[in-house]
């Protein structure tokens, strides 16, 4: 297929078949933002229900479905894809690559995630969403009537496969595709954290895959791993889930750390303080992330020895995290701090996350954990970590990289109003929840009884949630009103890293010539030690690009169809879906893609037209 | 000044305790287990407040001191890092964590020591969706919803579940442990003072998870012994009232309720009602009023969705009155 | 970047790693196997947690027959060896040898699968169904997942053999053959663990 022919196809077809990491990144961002709004709406509905004691805004069953879907959606369908979107777009640019290692698999990863997410949400219209919490503890989940949990199992299985593929793609891209001179210890922190997070994905997600497989076999084929009457054991699920689930927290937060490192360094006009310590701390956090899963299970009766070991191991994570916090502070120290919206989010993160971190250490105190566990204290803690860490990171990254990705700058004034409103709402919502937990409010309650001292703080919390909701609307408004602020310099923030060396909008092939990297903060080095432009590592020539493919969409659609066959025991449908899947895989394996070349002249023209 | 420092955190906790209810708050412990846990919470909080203060101080200083002033275009010095500082902020947190980790490990073991002593009593707690069953193996009795314990006595609790996972939490007396089907977990509590302590299920267990409340009622030892002895009196040895209403109520009960609800050791698998007349709530949470008892019998699903009791819509108003009167007469402590 | 896809007369000594695509595939596949390791570790963990939970059904010591499993182990180990021969031939540039030894590998894989189906059939007749007990469920899931991997490996290698039966060795298909053989070795290693942990420990203890 020639380049000209590819361009003649419709825009829709182009997006459905794209294997360009930048377009896949934008698809991730768009889908993630949709699910983020959906999960937020679910949260608002729950907070309305909890506004007043014994309020009857929602039936308890609906509330349980909402709490399950809110958690599942936010973790798997919002936070991860949004991060994946940024990683997809930015990481290849940061390492000076033209493409990712596996463009086809990368697209497949996206479509699997999207179809998995859609499948999960179809449950709302098919007799009820899953209702056993995002942790889906057995036997509540294995014995839950209806099909909600089946949708949960298959939806997550499909989107989880997509995540795993995405993780492997990032790992190989980062190891094999770096530009000349970009040694591992010169990689920007966002790329480093993507690398470590992908490592965690690789070793954590298979545990979830098995957990979900067992739950599916138990529910659909009558297996008895969790059926106590047949000798089953319900704790196995919790181990499998948290062996995945705890690293998952770091999969989310490490890339956010990476984003903050980029932004704080850029807007204090200083090199990141203690770069190697930051890298080392990221690795240590990633490693310890696998050693602490059972701190979610202090009350299931593991015994004092196991509880003590996991308590101490968990506390140890505070050390590398502290190293990071102090390195950020020392990066700011002596700098020239610019309070852009992106940097406001990064600066708002530091105190918010410290508060989430210290409650984490409190929770790690196993003996005291018996009081905290499964109360609103825990709810407050993980929202401080996930909103204070991940969500602020996503917004920071959005404001920072928006001009790179979409070619225009978001409005700073609106952005700052959004920031303050969101931050205020966030603390208002979750700060009081620490105390709600301590004075006797369990988590995952559909309502609470009046006269137990819980009324006022719940009302305050709900008001805070409204602030966050309204703030998010401001962000959406910002996206549309700012479209006219075209950004054409390619380097709006006086950037330090390779993604700011290329023209805006980003060319399809990223780099006309692969750059030569001479230091950490490659662009900054050239600005102050060189002539402000990257040295080229290769002569200008034709650039080879992979062709688009519709097969990732087809494979994901096949799994989507097959899932209905499994859920409703329609075996013909299940087989038909799997035939589509394997058929498409077979076509891919047999039909070789030779790609196409962008001629040298086109590249020269683009350079000249800049 | 020195005293002020010591008073500050204390008043902080008093303030917090004021928000909560004394018989429900982990911040106002009423027994040795909760006290131990509260002291750990305080210790961890002090350390954490110290950390927060240090970080916030540097943070605020940096933001003010190094903010970009109008017209300032200087390029800051590109510092690489500082080994001494890295060591310092690695070592200090480790030290702080040790201060917390050591007492935590000790207390984790203290709390796990559930060997019965000479004068301890044992209660087997079985959680059901959505109610609690308390079996006293030493006394051969079973009670529903209200867990009576003697004051100043170590109570060993064995936790089980008949269906999904639940969790047993009485914040004022002790942190929680899970009721796991197929496993037995244990813990211990002690209540020095008489009182009614509220308990809640803290593991999502279905639509009425939020209504799965119970009470731990601590009474003087002799009152407890009386209670236990009266609970143990078999049904056939109990004096029955001759009052017409109560006789009718009892007949209805035997026809319709006894299959599930035991009284004095007679009857099925549902919540025991031997001392129903001494409850202070209906179904774990409703006000103890005739109307609520009748509503519950007519249609329990509307009050606690997903519970195991069928509806009895066919009772006449008179029958319900008689049944309610009979239920209210079921007492073991007072005549 | 290399984008020379036409058949060359002289291939480099390691054709599977000669192109960037090949190196990516090679590295990506190693990572994939890392994930697969966790996958099987989770299944082993589940099995070890439940192997005593035989409920009313038969237990490992009543079912497992060492001779049968020993034959299966030998077949699979031999198939791994034949796949090594295939790669040696590939590196020597002997394409026919590669195809031949891979065909032998596929046949041995099919034999292994046949024995496994027979084995499961026997166990069901001795009263261990998939839903009989937690032990039964976890046993069939662990060994069955391995069996599914073997089946997938057979389908994969067969597809490669048919697709490239006439093309000769190229820089495009060399990494594909190499990676498929890597997968086959992995399956073999997993079986060695199954043999020791499930069968030997099941009979011995």
UniProtKB/TrEMBL annotation, chain A:
Its EC number is 7.1.1.9. Keywords: Cell membrane, Copper, Electron transport, Heme, Iron, Membrane, Metal-binding, Respiratory chain, Translocase, Transmembrane, Transmembrane helix, Transport. InterPro entries: Cyt_c_oxase-like_su1_dom, Cyt_c_oxase-like_su1_sf, Cyt_C_Oxase_1, Cyt_c_Oxase_su1_BS, Cyt_c_oxidase_su1_bac. One of its GO terms (cellular component) is plasma membrane. GO terms for molecular function: cytochrome-c oxidase activity; heme binding; metal ion binding. Cytochrome c oxidase is the component of the respiratory chain that catalyzes the reduction of oxygen to water. Subunits 1-3 form the functional core of the enzyme complex. CO I is the catalytic subunit of the enzyme. Electrons originating in cytochrome c are transferred via the copper A center of subunit 2 and heme A of subunit 1 to the bimetallic center formed by heme A3 and copper B. This is Cytochrome c oxidase subunit 1.
From TrEMBL, chain B:
It holds the Pfam family COX2_TM. Residues 118-230 form the Cytochrome oxidase subunit II copper A binding domain. Residues 244-331 form the Cytochrome c domain. It is found in: Cell membrane; Membrane. It comes from Evansella caseinilytica. Belongs to the cytochrome c oxidase subunit 2 family. This is Cytochrome c oxidase subunit 2. Coiled coil: none annotated. PROSITE patterns: COX2, COX2_CUA, COX2_TM, CYTC, PROKAR_LIPOPROTEIN. GO terms for biological process: ATP synthesis coupled electron transport. The chain crosses the membrane at residues 45-66, 87-106. It is an enzyme of class 7 (translocase). Subunits I and II form the functional core of the enzyme complex. Electrons originating in cytochrome c are transferred via heme a and Cu(A) to the binuclear center formed by heme a3 and Cu(B). Gene3D superfamilies: 1.10.287.90, Cupredoxins - blue copper proteins (2.60.40.420). It catalyses: 4 Fe(II)-[cytochrome c] + O2 + 8 H(+)(in) = 4 Fe(III)-[cytochrome c] + 2 H2O + 4 H(+)(out). GO terms for cellular component: plasma membrane. PANTHER family: CYTOCHROME C OXIDASE SUBUNIT 2 (PTHR22888:SF10), CYTOCHROME C OXIDASE, SUBUNIT II (PTHR22888). One of its GO terms (molecular function) is cytochrome-c oxidase activity. InterPro entries: CcO_II, CcO_II-like_C, Copper_CuA, Cupredoxin, CuRO_CcO_Caa3_II, Cyt_c-like_dom, Cyt_c_oxidase_su2, Cyt_c_oxidase_su2_TM_dom. It is a multi-pass membrane protein. Residues 18-115 form the Cytochrome oxidase subunit II transmembrane region profile domain.
From TrEMBL, chain C:
Signal peptide: none annotated. GO terms for biological process: aerobic electron transport chain. CDD domains: Ubiquinol_oxidase_III. GO terms for molecular function: cytochrome-c oxidase activity. The chain crosses the membrane at residues 27-48, 68-87, 99-118, 138-162, 182-202. It comes from the Bacteria. It holds the Pfam family COX3. InterPro entries: Cyt_c/ubiquinol_Oxase_su3, Cyt_c_oxidase-like_su3, Cyt_c_oxidase_su3-like_sf, Cyt_c_oxidase_su3_a-hlx, Ubiquinol_oxase_su3_dom. GO terms for cellular component: plasma membrane. It is found in: Cell membrane. Residues 1-203 form the Heme-copper oxidase subunit III family profile domain. Belongs to the cytochrome c oxidase subunit 3 family. PANTHER family: CYTOCHROME C OXIDASE SUBUNIT 3 (PTHR11403:SF9), CYTOCHROME C OXIDASE SUBUNIT III (PTHR11403). This is Cytochrome c oxidase subunit 3. It comes from Evansella caseinilytica.
């Amino acid at each position: 297929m020639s380049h000209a022919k590819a361009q003649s196809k419709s825009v829709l077809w182009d997006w459905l078949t794209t294997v360009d990491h930048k377009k896949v990144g934008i698809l991730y961002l768009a889908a993630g933002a949709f699910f983020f709004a959906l999960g937020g709406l679910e949260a608002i509905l729950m907070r309305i229900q909890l506004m007043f004691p014994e309020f009857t805004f929602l039936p308890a069953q609906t509330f349980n479905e909402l709490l399950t879907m809110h958690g599942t959606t936010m973790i798997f369908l919002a936070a991860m894809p949004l991060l994946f979107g940024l990683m997809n777009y930015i990481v290849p640019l940061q390492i000076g690559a033209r493409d990712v290692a596996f463009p086809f698999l990368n697209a497949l990863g996206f479509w699997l995630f999207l179809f998995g997410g859609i499948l999960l949400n179809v449950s709302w219209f098919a007799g009820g969403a899953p209702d056993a919490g995002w942790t889906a503890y057995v036997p509540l989940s294995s014995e839950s009537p209806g099909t909600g949990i089946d949708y949960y199992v298959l939806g997550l299985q499909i989107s989880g496969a997509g995540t795993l593929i995405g993780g492997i793609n990032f790992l190989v891209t980062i190891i094999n595709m770096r530009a000349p001179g970009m040694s591992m210890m010169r990689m920007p922190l966002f790329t480093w954290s993507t690398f470590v997070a992908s490592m965690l994905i690789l070793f954590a997600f298979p545990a979830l895959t098995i957990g979900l497989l067992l739950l599916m076999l138990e529910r659909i084929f009558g297996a008895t791993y969790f059926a106590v009457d047949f000798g089953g054991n319900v704790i196995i699920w919790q181990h499998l889930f948290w062996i995945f689930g705890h690293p998952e927290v770091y999969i989310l937060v490490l890339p956010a750390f990476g984003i903050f490192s980029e932004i704080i360094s850029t807007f204090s006009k200083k090199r990141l303080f203690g770069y190697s310590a930051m890298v080392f701390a990221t690795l240590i956090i990633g490693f310890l992330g696998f050693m602490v899963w059972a701190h979610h299970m202090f009350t299931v009766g593991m015994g004092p020895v196991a509880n003590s070991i996991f308590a101490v191991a968990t506390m140890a994570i505070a050390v590398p995290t502290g190293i990071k916090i102090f390195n950020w502070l020392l990066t700011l120290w002596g700098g020239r701090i610019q309070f852009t919206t992106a940097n406001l989010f990064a600066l708002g993160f530091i105190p918010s996350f410290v508060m989430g971190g210290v409650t984490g250490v409190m929770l790690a105190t196993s003996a005291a954990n018996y009081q905290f566990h499964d109360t609103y204290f825990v709810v407050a803690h993980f929202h401080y970590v996930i909103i204070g860490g991940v969500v602020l990171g996503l917004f920071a990254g959005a404001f920072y990289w928006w001009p790179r990705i979409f070619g225009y700058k978001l409005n700073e004034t609106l952005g700052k109003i959004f920031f303050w409103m969101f931050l205020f709402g966030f603390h208002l919502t979750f700060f009081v929840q620490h105390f709600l937990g301590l004075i006797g409010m369990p988590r995952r309650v559909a309502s609470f009884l009046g006269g137990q001292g819980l009324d006022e703080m719940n009302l305050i919390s709900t008001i805070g949630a409204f602030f966050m909701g309204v703030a998010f609307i401001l962000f959406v408004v910002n996206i549309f009103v700012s479209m006219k602020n075209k950004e054409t310099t390619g380097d709006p923030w006086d950037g330090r890293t390779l993604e700011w060396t290329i023209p805006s909008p980003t060319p399809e092939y990223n780099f006309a010539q692969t750059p030569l990297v001479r230091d950490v903060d490659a662009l900054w080095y050239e600005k102050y030690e060189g002539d402000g432009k990257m040295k080229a590592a290769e002569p200008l020539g034709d650039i080879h690009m992979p062709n688009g493919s519709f097969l990732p969409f087809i494979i994901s659609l096949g799994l989507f169809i097959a899932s209905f066959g499994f859920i409703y025991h329609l075996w013909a449908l299940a087989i038909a879906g799997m035939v589509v899947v394997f058929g498409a895989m077979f076509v891919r394996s047999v039909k070789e893609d030779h790609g196409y070349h962008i001629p040298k002249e086109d590249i020269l023209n683009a350079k000249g037209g800049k | 000044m020195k005293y002020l420092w010591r008073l500050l955190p204390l008043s902080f906790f008093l303030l917090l305790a004021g928000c909560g209810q004394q018989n429900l708050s982990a911040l106002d412990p009423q027994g040795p287990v909760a006290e131990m846990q509260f002291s750990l919470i305080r210790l961890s909080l002090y350390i954490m407040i110290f950390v927060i203060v240090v970080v916030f101080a540097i943070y605020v200083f940096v933001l003010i001191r190094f903010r970009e002033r109008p017209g300032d275009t200087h390029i800051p010095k590109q510092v690489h890092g500082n080994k001494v500082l890295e060591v310092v902020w690695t070592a200090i947190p480790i030290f702080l964590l040790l201060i917390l980790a050591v007492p935590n490990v000790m207390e984790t073991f203290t709390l796990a020591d559930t060997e019965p002593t000479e004068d301890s009593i044992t209660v087997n707690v079985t959680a059901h969706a959505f109610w609690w069953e308390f079996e006293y193996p030493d006394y051969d009795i079973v009670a529903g919803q209200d867990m009576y314990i003697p004051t100043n006595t170590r109570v060993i609790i064995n936790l089980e579940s008949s269906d999904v996972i639940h969790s047993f939490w009485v914040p004022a007396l002790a942190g929680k442990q899970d009721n796991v089907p197929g496993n037995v977990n244990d813990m211990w509590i002690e209540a020095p003072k008489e009182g009614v302590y509220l308990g809640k299920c803290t593991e999502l267990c279905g639509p009425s998870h939020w209504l799965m409340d119970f009470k731990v009622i601590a009474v003087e030892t002799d009152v407890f012994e009386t209670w236990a002895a009266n609970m143990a009196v078999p049904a056939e040895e109990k004096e029955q009232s001759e009052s017409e209403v109560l006789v009718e109520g009892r007949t209805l009960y035997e026809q319709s309720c006894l299959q599930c609800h035991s009284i004095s050791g007679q009857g099925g698998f549902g919540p025991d009602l031997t001392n129903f007349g001494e409850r202070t709530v209906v179904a774990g949470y409703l006000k103890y009023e005739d109307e609520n008892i009748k509503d519950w019998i007519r249609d329990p699903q509307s009050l606690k969705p997903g519970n195991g009791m069928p509806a009895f819509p066919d009772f006449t108003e008179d029958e319900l009155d008689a049944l309610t009167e009979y239920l209210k007469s079921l007492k073991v402590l007072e005549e | 970047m290399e984008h020379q896809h036409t058949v060359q007369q002289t291939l480099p000594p390691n054709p599977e790693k000669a192109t960037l695509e090949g190196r990516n595939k090679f590295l990506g596949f190693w990572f994939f196997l890392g994930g697969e390791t966790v996958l099987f570790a989770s299944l082993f963990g589940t099995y070890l947690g439940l192997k005593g939970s035989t409920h009313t059904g038969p237990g490992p010591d009543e079912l497992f027959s060492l001779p049968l499993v020993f034959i299966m182990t030998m077949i699979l180990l031999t198939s791994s060896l034949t796949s090594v021969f295939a790669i040696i031939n590939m590196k020597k540039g002997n394409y026919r040898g590669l195809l031949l030894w891979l065909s032998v590998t596929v046949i041995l894989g099919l034999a292994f699968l046949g024995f496994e189906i027979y084995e499961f059939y026997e166990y069901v007749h001795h009263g261990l169904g998939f839903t009989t007990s937690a032990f039964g469920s976890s046993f069939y899931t662990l060994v069955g997942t391995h069996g599914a991997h073997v089946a997938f490996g057979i389908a994969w290698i067969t597809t490669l053999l048919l697709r490239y039966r006439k093309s000769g060795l190229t820089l495009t298909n060399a990494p594909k053959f190499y990676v498929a053989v890597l997968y086959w070795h992995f399956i073999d290693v997993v079986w060695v663990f199954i043999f020791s942990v499930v069968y030997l420990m099941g009979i011995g203890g």
